Amino acid sequence: MTSSAPVTVAVTGAEGFIGSHLVEALIASGHRVRAMAQYNSFSSYGWLETLPQDVMDSVEVVLGDVRDAGSVQHLLTGTEAVYHLAALIAIPYSYQAPHSYVATNVTGTLNVLEAVRRLGIPRMVHTSTSETYGTAQTVPITEDHPINTQSPYSASKAGGDRLADGYYASFGIPVATLRPFNTFGPRQSMRAVIPTVIGQVAAGERTIALGDLRPTRDFMFVKDTAQAFLAVGTAPAEAVVGRTFNAGTGGEISVGDLVTLVGKLMGAELEVREDAQRIRPAASEVMRLVCDASRLRAATGWEPAHSLQEGLEQTVRFFSDPANLARYKTAIYNV
Asked: Which residues constitute the signal peptide according to the record (predicted)?
């Protein structure tokens, strides 16, 4: 009996936090991956360099840039699907460099859509963010919740979302949008709150520098986010194409309570020092996010497999490894 050859798919932003976990999930499910890492003169493949060799044997790394249409066309040629994760993501930096967010998150998405259109790629999964909803007006947040962008970052992501919608309506592009809530886990950057807390504790700090402790978030472990991407990318077209899907757990916890939980898991008594540079402008802070993922469950059968505590335990183990912690700068504010 002969087996069919693995399907080759493309991933933009593959060198990053979620992207590298998605690459692992795709390989585990039998795919081959063309992984775009942003071009740099160091030939760095980011987090892809830490993946096991048996994973990387099925990965072709392509250095390029989603802001360049030719790079995107080259990446997608010969693939059966594209998972578009490349983005500038740090909200505080979007206050300083908004033009770069439009170039990457809007123009970059346009380049991917155009390549999918020209090459006839059968499936595109576009990445959105729960930040496009702004502070929850009703909870849990469904996909019908109003879009209320409260930062240049979220505005740029909403622009990419609207392009995806427009290309589906105008040209029948087979695109589906996944809108993850707050993903966390190993390999996340220190600009996010969970690595910030865990990293500072792992580095020996007991007084943790943070911003506002009141906002609540729906934190989802990165392996569950990767499986949500895979579910949308492999579901029958009639179930997902032209649709937007939230991905989250349906639970929420405040930043302050999160600090308490991390302290318990790490056996540390923690105090919090308010750091003014970590506080968003008042009208830009999103105070509450909690997800309704019932549409995704109904369309694909996806369910998160990890509790918050289970995910935190794995994340603590990662950052407590001195070799991993050494990759980070825990003593500074990572914008």
From this structure: none
